[in-house]
Amino acid sequence: MLRTIIQDVAAVRERDPAARSSLEVLVSYPGLHAVWSHRIAHWLWKRDLRFLARAVSAAARVMTGVDIHPAARLGPGLFIDHATGVVIGETAEVGANVTIYQGVTLGGTSLERVKRHPTVGDCVTIGAGAKLLGAITIGHDSRIGANAVVVHDVPPNSVVVGVPGQVIARSRPRPPGSPPDLDETLLPDLVGASLNMLQRRVDELEREVTGHVSVHDVRPSESGVWPGHDFSI
């Protein structure tokens, strides 16, 4: 238990630059308190003290804003950053060194008493507001983008963005032992990339047919800024 506590604190200090000391982490991080409360509730659950386990879980939800079912399985080194609004269902399984941001749901899609919640591999990062639904598997070293809705399995070393979530193979796979993948600014814009490709194709066809390209297309500049006169703002 002491080794697990030390590993949990180390995970926070490693992944949150705002953490200035271990004492600060111990006292003021609700995500850490939620994880520790769950470990107690899970210990009770496995010993058939189900009502007491649910009571501990309910108290932790009130105190931390995190709702974790006592039966869920959480690996070591889990970091729930900012904590508020995280929901982890009964049959969910979370691997080692996973990072979860606020508003994440590991939810079920069935009323059957079967495996109905996600299994998350090691070293996965789940962005704010993401929803992982059903008995799906998220492969090791993957990153789920903010607000993505994931309803299908995700291969290892992948990036998922959009609604519904679209899986993208990394152009530069992460080697084993890499630090957590936390940079949400690198998420691709699949819709934007598709529209730009179509626009370029339209430009090529227009040039072939008319010999010139229309100058009235609605599109961003090379710097990525859209012209305001194209919109009612």
Give the averaged pLDDT, no decimals. 88
The figure for the number of domains is 2
What's the CATH class of the largest domain, please?
Mainly Beta
- CATH architecture name of the largest domain: 3 Solenoid
| Overall geometry | elongated
Assembly state (oligomeric): single chain
The rounded Rg comes to: 22 Å
Major sheet attributes: 6 strands, mixed
| Run of helices and strands | HHHHEEEEEEEEEEEEEEEH
CATH-derived topology of the largest domain: UDP N-Acetylglucosamine Acyltransferase, domain 1
Q: Which structural class do the helices and strands define?
A: alpha/beta
Helix content: 25-40%
Strand order of the largest sheet: 3-6-9-12-14-15
Relevant CATH superfamily of the largest domain? Hexapeptide repeat proteins
Question: What is the number of helices?
Answer: 5
| Regions with little confidence, pLDDT below 50 for 5+ residues | none
Please report the distance between the alpha carbons of the first and last residues: 57 Å
In percent, how much strand structure appears in the residues? Answer: 15-25%
How many beta strands in the DSSP annotation?
15
Describe this structure in words.
- The protein has a six-stranded mixed beta sheet.
- The chain has two domains: 185 residues, Hexapeptide repeat proteins (UDP N-Acetylglucosamine Acyltransferase, domain 1, 3 Solenoid), CATH 2.160.10.10; 41 residues, no CATH class.
- The termini are far apart.
- Strand 14 and strand 15 form a beta hairpin.
- It has five helices and 15 strands.
- Helix 3 runs antiparallel to helix 4.
- It is an alpha/beta fold.
- The model has no long low-confidence stretch (mean pLDDT 88).
